[in-house]
Amino acid sequence: MADDLAVRSHSITRSSSLIAPSSSRISLPREDTGGLYGWDPNDWDHESSAGHGGASDSRSDDRDDDPLKMSTWAGQPRVEGSSETVRMVLLTCVSIGITFTWGVEMTYCTPYLLSLGLSKGQTSLVWVAGPLSGLIVQPIIGVIADESTSKWGRRRPIIAIGSVIVALSLLALGFTKEIVGSFVSDPETARALTIMMAVLSLYSVDFSINGVMSCARSLVVDTLPIHKQQTGAAWASRMNSLGHIIGYAMGALDLVQLFGPRLGDSQFKQLTIIAALGMLFTSAITCWAVSERILISVRHDPRRAQGRFKVVRQIYSTLLSLPPRIRGICNAVFWSWIGWFPFIIYSSTWVGETYFRYDVSPNARDSNDALGDMGRIGSMALTVYSTVSFISAWILPALIQAPEDETFTHRPPASLAPFIETFNKVKPDLLTAWIASNILFALAMFFTPFATSFRFATVIVAFCGIPWCVSQWAPVTFLGVEVNKLSGSSDPAAVNGAATTTTAPYRRLSNDTTNSIEMLHLEHGPSSTLEAGTAGEGAGGGHGSTGELSGIYFGIYNIYVTIPQFLSTVMSGAVFALLEPGKSPELATEAHPSEHSDPTGPNAIAVCMFFGALSSLVAAWSTRKLRGL
């Protein structure tokens, strides 16, 4: 690639809906390693011409008749920290709190609901909260955040507000009986209200944490350039795994014995308090460390939906016109999540039930805290699983070729160059790793109905840490790359530069996926309107991606994640109704034995995970089809 490859736009007609500004030139940056993310901001070459001399000029030139008016921005994204590792940790720190909370919910909420007297079929209906919240919250929050002109940025305000709601909902979930008991004295009424409040609190946790998750993903995409999207996704995966490890490890400990009754008289109560504090702490770190570009005005596009149902129509129109590669990514994720959902929701309960049915001693069977015992057994298995996933998140990125490796040249030390060049010829690409992860997960799930020991069940769960790591990292990486291309970004300007107005419309100049160039017009210059948002000096400069559309595309991505969860919930409910229609014999100890399910039959959860394996094979086939897109 030439150092100063320039693309000059030609005259175009006003009927074009996506245009590159006339009389503009952008030079691709040289591939030396300078600046925060590897590209020196001084390498950007912009042509000075009348009408393009500064940000003020960019808004006063003759564009009133253009069908697409440009968005204007103040400042550039930046992250605090003295090194790239520190900045990546701070950028993705909120993921620890998110997955810690998910870990507590996944490990203890199913046993908790069963202990309140719900059957497995009823519990599966409660878990519709997860996909329902993802289907509604993430796309809507994505669109709202994309167009937010808050002085605090587009993503951080939602992360902060959502984290507070998550914390309050967790406390309500953990202390439901005490809250209801302070208002109601009748036992039957209190029991019904306790179940109702527990379900509502669970829904509140799921809805609010999905908003936080949506903006946390988009924040990474907005902040990092294309060639760092895999690095950012890998770091998010590492933080996810670390959050799971901490959450599951805490769940495996006897917290009541460790801390006493000060934080609550049960394991579940103490975990909800710790999860609430962890959610607030990690989100505060990310919100403090990251400075976002400030959206001054949203570009005018007559094709955008207007009116009361603007958000819904915009999501719908974008969904119908997805680029082929993004649609292919979403299709692969769709089939993958039909298989993953039963594992995520029920794996800890499955390990705990396997222990109680095949391994527990007669004395332990009469425990006063069966919920805590089952939760600790399940948490131990998931701790091992998360440790495997965490180690994989560190090792696999070094062994797998990133999607942009062919277009971004890394220059290793001369002494290591021969070894690295040889290794690069044989290491698999990320798409191959994603295909393999779907196949490995399917193989693991095929063995679940045959597990008659909690140790074997633990091995199966732990093995799934490897495919889970790849499944959380690969699709987000590919989607991040595609979204940045659609935003017209190859790499924007430096983080610690002057106030910038960025315009993101593009037109593809080549059909070659490895050599395609997107038009990006960056205009620098003094502007009294924008200077207030200019990033100040400090640790951490570099290049961010435009990421203007990341919210809506990640929201649509999440639709493809949540719809299969509905399908999986329906499948699980049917299996539970057929194989285990009664209450849990291990947890619903207050129920009459005639109301219990037969514990000697096949485990219904294992059967659900077995069916999920079939869907994972379809996911592997769908992932393979991406090579042709």
TrEMBL record:
Coiled coil: none annotated. GO terms for cellular component: plasma membrane. The chain crosses the membrane at residues 86-104, 124-145, 157-175, 195-220, 241-259, 271-290, 332-351, 377-400, 430-450, 456-481, 559-579, 604-623. Residues 58-68 have a biased composition (Basic and acidic residues). The keyword Chloroplast does not apply. Pfam families: MFS_2. It is found in: Membrane. Keywords: Membrane, Transmembrane, Transmembrane helix, Transport. Residues 12-27 have a biased composition (Low complexity). It comes from the Eukaryota. Its main location: membrane. GO terms for molecular function: sucrose:proton symporter activity. InterPro entries: MFS_trans_sf. Residues 1-77 are annotated as: Disordered. It is a multi-pass membrane protein. PANTHER family: SUGAR TRANSPORTER, TRANSPORTER, PUTATIVE (EUROFUNG)-RELATED. This is General alpha-glucoside permease. It comes from Parachaetomium inaequale.
